């Protein structure tokens, strides 16, 4: 899929398209309130062993789930969409009775609780109508007529391709194993490390594995006739990491430059977010037949090599954004899509930091101003507890979420903010097998300043109304400046003929001595509305 539209147009179009598709096409989502039956156990590891029929779009194989019992379990409730037929369920050399109705797969435990259970299944894969926003399998052909298959499931969850406990709060702490068999000479790019390839006369099996915790939608594979460019990357941690780029054979001449762009983005993210989170696996991108997605250690890339110069380096907004999710989304994950802004808002702010790092502070502020025009303020950035993916996903979790981080940079000051940002990405209670939520992140950030931030977060995360700036002429004395509709204060830059000063503004008017109307927040550190 050749996409050449600018990022903002693409995102606006696809968000609208996502809503239109939802009106007429069957949709899946995940998250929301955890099913009571699913609170009795968790899945700690997935092992897939699948064969893909490229000619007919059929998946056939098994998924073995490692289980941990949390309470008495009579029914093991998993999810798998009903385009697949479940053939049998086996554990400890016995078959279990089951019922597969809609997306639910209920397995009767009959007083047992095995450590592992294997589900054999087969069926036509769901076709993605607007990937990655409306996900599923993308069945394309490359320019040479070869099969090219992608998988995207961020808004739908892992049930599109495997039986699973499909809730974001269940992040398998021991990772996943992915065996995919495809016809020769196709390649499968997937998560983690490639442990082995084995071949028959007609097929090749690719055996991938990761020991890192991984969310369901990040378990992924892409199939095509790929050229692999591989080199080593030296992380800021001092570790040597395998850097891999999978491109279609016809794009082999672009692989080295793509690897260079990837390396520039890794180094930039490390500067702000800390060392690369998955050094024992790899850092990689694979060319996909859709725009892209943050699949852990194998990010999808479909931006058609549209690199631009930024300072002294080449830049690709799509590659940089998806790579940023290795820190915020994959390493630090949320367990409720109500907190989706933590994934997308902070990662989008990381996009702005690329402008700062390579283009300079003016380029950064130009990027902020350009993005500000697209903030809608129609829905709260942070949702209500137990929000499903289809309700949580809207444009302001990206842009307004990023703007909140921009405002915090001003509130905390440069040195404290950037120290906080790097430590947030490495805070043990939030990362890998653990997860974070909005209130926990607020408390973490509050720990970096004595300035009270609760009012700031309440307004910008949970409200759609913006603080209003009111400027009132006070005779010859100057001007009264206030934020009349809020019950907290903000340190705001005000420019007069005397220069730039920072003033704490609140609902109580502050007299600013000036012969002409002062400029309030001239660099747009905050989202304000202006009252006449």
Give the overall form: globular
What is the CATH H-level superfamily of one domain?
Neutral Protease Domain 2
CATH architecture of one domain: Orthogonal Bundle
Low-pLDDT segments: 1-7, 9-25
CATH topology of one domain: Neutral Protease, domain 2
Q: Biggest β-sheet, characterized?
A: 8 strands, mixed
Instruction: Give the helix tally.
Output: 10
What Rg is obtained from the alpha carbons, in whole angstroms? 25 Å
**pLDDT averaged residue by residue:** 94
What is the class of one domain in the CATH system? Mainly Alpha
Give the number of DSSP strands: 29
End-to-end distance: 48 Å
Strand content: 25-35%
Percent in helix: 10-25%
> What structural class should be given to the helix and strand makeup?
alpha+beta
Order of strands, main sheet, comes to 5-4-8-2-1-11-14-13
Describe the structure.
By secondary structure, the chain is an alpha+beta fold. Among the domains are: 337-462, Neutral Protease, domain 2 (Orthogonal Bundle); 468-531, no CATH class. The chain has 10 helices and 29 strands. The chain has helices spanning 7-24, 255-273, 317-324, 340-359, 361-372, 389-392, 395-412, 414-424, 438-446, 454-462; strands at residues 41-53, 58-69, 75-79, 84-91, 94-95, 98-101, 104-108, 116-124, 136-141, 147-152, 176-183, 187-190, 193-199, 203-210, 221-224, 226-234, 240-248, 283-287, 292-293, 299-301, 308-310, 313-315, 468-474, 478-482, 490-496, 499-505, 510-512, 519-520, 529-531. Residues 1-7 and 9-25 have low confidence and may be disordered.
């Amino acid at each position: 899929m050749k996409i050449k539209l600018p990022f903002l147009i693409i995102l606006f179009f696809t968000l609208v398209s996502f809503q239109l598709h939802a009106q007429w096409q069957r949709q899946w989502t995940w998250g929301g309130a955890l099913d009571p039956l699913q609170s009795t156990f968790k899945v700690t590891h997935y092992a897939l062993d699948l064969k893909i029929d490229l000619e007919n779009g059929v998946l056939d194989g098994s998924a073995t789930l490692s289980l941990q019992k949390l309470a008495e379990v009579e029914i093991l409730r998993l999810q798998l969409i009903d385009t697949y037929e479940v053939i049998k369920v086996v554990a400890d050399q016995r078959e279990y009775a089951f019922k597969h109705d809609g997306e639910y797969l209920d397995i009767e435990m009959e007083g047992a609780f095995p450590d592992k259970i294997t589900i054999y299944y087969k069926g036509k894969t769901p076709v993605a109508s607007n990937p990655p926003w409306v996900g599923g399998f993308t069945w394309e052909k490359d320019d040479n007529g070869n099969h090219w298959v992608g998988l995207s499931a961020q808004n739908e969850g892992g049930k599109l391709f495997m039986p699973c406990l499909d809730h974001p709060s269940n992040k398998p702490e021991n990772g996943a194993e992915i065996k995919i068999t495809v016809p020769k000479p196709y390649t499968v790019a997937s998560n983690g490390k490639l442990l082995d390839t084995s071949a028959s006369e007609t097929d090749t099996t690719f055996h991938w594995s990761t020991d890192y915790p991984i969310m369901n939608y990040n378990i992924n594979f892409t199939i095509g006739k790929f050229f692999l460019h591989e080199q080593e990357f030296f992380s800021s941690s001092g570790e040597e990491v395998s850097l891999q780029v999978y491109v279609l054979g016809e794009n082999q001449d672009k692989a080295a430059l793509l690897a260079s762009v990837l390396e520039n983005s890794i180094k930039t993210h490390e500067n702000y977010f800390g060392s690369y989170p998955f050094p024992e696996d790899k850092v990689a991108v694979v060319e996909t037949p859709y725009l892209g997605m943050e699949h852990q250690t194998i990010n999808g890339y479909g931006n058609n090599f549209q690199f631009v110069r930024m300072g002294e380096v080449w830049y690709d907004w799509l590659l940089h954004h998806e790579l940023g999710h290795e820190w915020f989304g994959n390493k630090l994950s949320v367990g409720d899509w109500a907190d989706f802004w933590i994934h997308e808002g902070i990662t989008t702010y990381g996009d702005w930091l690329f402008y700062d790092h390579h283009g300079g502070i003016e380029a950064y502020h130009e990027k902020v101003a350009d993005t500000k025009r697209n903030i809608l303020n129609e829905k709260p950035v942070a949702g209500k507890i137990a929000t499903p993916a289809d309700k949580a996903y809207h444009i302001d979790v990206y842009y307004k979420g990023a703007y909140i981080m921009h405002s915090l940079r001003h509130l905390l000051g440069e040195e404290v903010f950037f120290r906080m940002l790097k430590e947030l990405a490495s805070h043990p209670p939030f990362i890998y097998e653990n997860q974070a939520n909005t209130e926990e992140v607020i408390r973490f950030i509050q720990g970096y300043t004595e300035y009270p931030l609760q009012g700031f977060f309440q307004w910008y995360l949970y409200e759609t109304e913006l603080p209003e700036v009111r400027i009132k002429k006070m005779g010859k004395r100057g001007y009264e400046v206030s934020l009349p509709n809020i019950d907290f204060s903000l340190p705001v830059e005000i420019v007069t003929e005397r220069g730039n000063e920072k003033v704490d503004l609140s609902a109580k008017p502050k007299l600013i001595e000036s012969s002409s109307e002062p400029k309030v927040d001239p660099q747009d550190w905050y989202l304000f509305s202006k009252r006449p």
